[in-house]
Amino acid sequence: MRSKIIVFLIICSSFSLFSQENTILDVKIKGLKKTKIALIKKVIETKKNTSLDSALLNKDMVRLKRLPAISHAYFQVFHSHQNNYNVFINVVENHTLIPEFNLWTTTNEKTAYKIGLSDYNFLGQNITLGAFYQNNGFDSYGINFKAPTLFSSKWGLALNHQKWTSEEPLYFDEKTANYKYQNTSYEALALHQINFKNNLHFGLNYFKEKYDYLTGSTDPTIPLKLDVNKWLFKTVYTYVNLNYYYQYINGFKSQFYGQYVISENEHQDNFLIFWNDLFYYKRVGKKGNWANRLRIGLSSNIKSPFAPFALDNNVNLRGVGILVDRGTGSIVWNTEYRHTLYENNWLAIQGNTFIDAGTWRNPGGKLSDFVKEKNMQAYSGVGLRFINKKIFNAIFRIDYGYGLTKNASKGFVFGIGQYF
């Protein structure tokens, strides 16, 4: 009898040992200078006194590298005693207080400039706070606030105010007119992280638009002056499965934008607009990165010179020019190969070759406009990227695009950040 009891106790003890899980005794964060430890612990799902899960830790490292404040993150696991372990998360912070200065020539050959300052980790709490002033012959300014984890690890808030003024070309019946365009807007968005890969932003934007005729062709059906108040209902859904290693990106991302605009003017009807951006990035060897963006968009098909989709250097086709056409539908594919030519611990220089191609639906036109040769544009070119690896989004780019289609233009495009 005694021997049976001993055997029973040994079996129970064995099951007890096998059933024991490795437990996290503590989570320690190293390398922080500005970012608050409480923020990091709120963002990650790895917690003390929970089971040690390497898959979850790897997800948390990706999650941290998506923050503007973090350029790199990795973890280490150290045994403490019995089945208890300490987890050390090591982070490399970005410099996130970024000044902005841009200088360019407008369509009417005026010199324009834009200055600004943004902190992408305000108070060390993953809050973006920024402002800018622009002069392109007219005064513009903007203020923005974004706190993705303001209320919890899943819920946040974004507030934006902007007063934008510029000279814009409008196109109608093969004619062109230049208008002074003013947009004063106030926006509030709720930010929700559904899970590791899915995010949702939704909210309202109230704005006032003004168009004042300056020069060019006129038409009895096109007003010389337009002043209208509008409400915009916005939804942005993002699926993200990207992994970052400094300037290199690998994975897939989809971003859907949906907007419904209510207008208070007889010259502009209420309209719906949506577009979806599909991104695919692939590491090629140790120094290469293949990047792709496919944008498909449609809006209410109103025959109006105020069509929402623009054909523009800085948005879709490098080398095409500034606001050269408008449409109520757009299909654009951008693809480029980036290769690191030089790199040290803080600087990387990339060269790139690209092809940008797109087609548009004319205002009031048909879906068949997308396959008409006159609406198709294609550009190819080369460029350089100068990347500061220790400053968030500190990428100065220059591209030269050359038109491949009939009567196409060519030219340089400058900017901050990767083109896509």
Please explain how this structure is put together:
With 420 residues, this protein is mostly beta strands. The chain has 3 helices and 21 strands. It has helices at 2-19, 37-43, 54-65; strands at residues 23-30, 70-81, 84-93, 97-105, 111-122, 127-135, 139-147, 155-172, 175-193, 198-216, 225-245, 248-263, 271-284, 288-299, 309-311, 325-327, 329-343, 347-361, 376-388, 395-403, 410-416. The protein has a 16-stranded antiparallel beta sheet, with no helix packed on it. A 3-stranded mixed beta sheet has the order 1-3-2, covered by helices on one side. Strands 15-16 form a two-stranded antiparallel ribbon. A hairpin with a 3-residue loop joins β17 and β18 (347-361). The chain starts with a helix and ends with a strand. 23% of the residues are buried. The model is unreliable at 6-19 (pLDDT under 50).
